[in-house]
Design goal:
518 residues; alpha/beta; 8-stranded mixed beta sheet; 8 strands; elongated
Amino acid sequence: MALGFIKKVFTFGKEKPVEQAPPSPFALTPEEKTAIAAETEPHARKEDLPVSPADPVAPEVMDTAGGPSDDGVEEDPPLLPAVDQIGDLGVTPLSLLQAEAAVEAVEDVAAAEPSFDQALRDAGEEDRRGDSGDGPVQAVAVAGDETLVEAARDADSVAAPEPVDEPAAHPVGAISDEAEEVQVTGRADPALPKGFSTGPAVIEPLPVAPQAKLSWFQRLRQGLSRTSSQLTGQIAALFTKRKLDEQTLQDLEDLLIQADLGVETAMRVTDTLSSERYGKDVTGEDVSRIMASEITKVLTPVAKPLQLDLNHKPHVILVVGVNGTGKTTTIGKLAAKLSGAGLKVMLAAGDTFRAAAIEQLKIWADRTQSEFIGTKLGADAAGLAYDAFEQAKAKKCDVLIIDTAGRLQNKAELMAELEKIVRVLGKLDPDAPHTVLQTLDATTGQNALSQVEIFRNVAGVNGLIMTKLDGTARGGILVAISAKHKLPVYFIGIGEGVDDLEPFEANDFARAIAGIAQ
């Protein structure tokens, strides 16, 4: 049956005659070739030249001049038949053209014949139609294709392949996952060995450990780290392998004064150290311990709570200070503490010079749920203080906190305006303002001493709040101010948050500035 199909599909015949190539118009005739050869042949010349009696080259050299001898070596037969020599004019011989034409004819016949795969598909279609075949096919030789004839002769003797069970077909419209994946991606996933899996890598985020909330002392020590590290480092370098003598005590006193601790505190530390360890070896830990003890003695009398006389409603708190000491932010933090305790608070925007001061205080009033009173920019601050007192009294507010414009202590006209605010409040209540708080910027250093002195004389400052201790290495100025003016220090600030304003504790501050753990 297969031979019958091949007989129908393939047509065998005689070899196509090879077309003779037309003669080239540039071909040379035999006469022309003879003439050209005669012209190019070298002519014999007869010259009277001296002839050597013996040949200078030995016969053995002449025999091997072209390389090793070829005796006993058989040459390989040529792959192609010999080709006539090409003429001097570059014309291709007729025999070469005929060979090229024969090769092209064979290629054309091979291209016209159907492929073997197509023959098998057509044979399968005949089997399904029930064709019984036509019997053996007569072998007809095709020139140059004996392999195909032998395959056709033996086709009937080959056993038919056994039927193979086809996999069950999927329902109409149903496509398996593997087939669908092959259709989409063009390939199926390879079978991976044990221990591997396919799919994108999943990176699980690392668990974030919750940050432990620091205690107030830890935050205070962290805020004063620049002051304490600088001070303790210099002390340790001073007392390295050195006995305590007069020169060492003088060097220590200079070091403490440079740290803004003040002359009085520096002398107290050196006197105590001299009485305990004079003439003996002293370490930096010994000096830090004595320094913390003496600073605590200086600060303990001024570490007092802010007293509110609620019999006077409202209790008026006037906040003063130079530019940039954090007055408005400190007022907001105080209002948050008082409102959280259940007191009714009013905030008065008395800083009518700074454009953003009024809006900033209004935001703090909204956050702390406090009453607010303000005026236009450039208005009289003393008139605002008068209106604020009247409204706070009418609304039965417990505390009235009045903000003032920042001013330098050496500006006489600005200090006179502050004095006017105090006089106006005194007319409404002889005891008003009941508390005058001055905010001090720890970064100002020794300049804070003169600020306290002038504001105390003009506005009657009776309490201090030290701010920005976390941004300076000069936190020791609070010790010098306390030793000189003996004013109460109510609060200290070490940050911008509401919880960063805490009551002043003398022992904690002394140990933090000396670098001693609690």
